[in-house]
Fold this protein.
Amino acid sequence: MADDKKAEKTLLGQVLALSGVHVENCYQCGKCTAGCPVAFEMEIPPQQMMRMVQLNLKDRALNANTVWVCASCETCSARCPMDVKVADVMDALRRIAIEEGVPAPAEARTMAVFHREFLGGIRRWGRLNEHELIGLYKLHTGKFMDDVGLGIRLFGKQKIRPWHFQKVKRTEDMARLFEAALSGEKDGH
């Protein structure tokens, strides 16, 4: 019992508890980093993040932009010869950062806003409402004019049609799923 409590206090233990991933199985082959489509934007590439988790370098890992830049595409996880679910580790690290109040680095704050608004929209609507996501993202980041030209072209080609959005049926089921997931986090499940 004492060993379990001690393990949960390490970054490796926290990640294991949240994701079920045994990061200690990573032997640093580098296939995750080689396949990552956004590694060039990461302060610390996936392979090195796995090593930081192994070495309990929590502050350095949580303060890097890496967990916010990760697109959770799972290319890294698919490439791993040891079946280490690297994307799940990144999700766990992001959750730990949020729970412990570690702010996203300045260059990654827009990604943190995107993650929050993306999940919030799914919770509200039962599916992604792209128009709401774009609006809230723009509102919270202040990037109002970044892609107006693209938006006008897409609207002209009817790729953006705000009047065609439909809320899914039984969104209360989606809300219950979110509540169950959040209560499980609080209970340590």
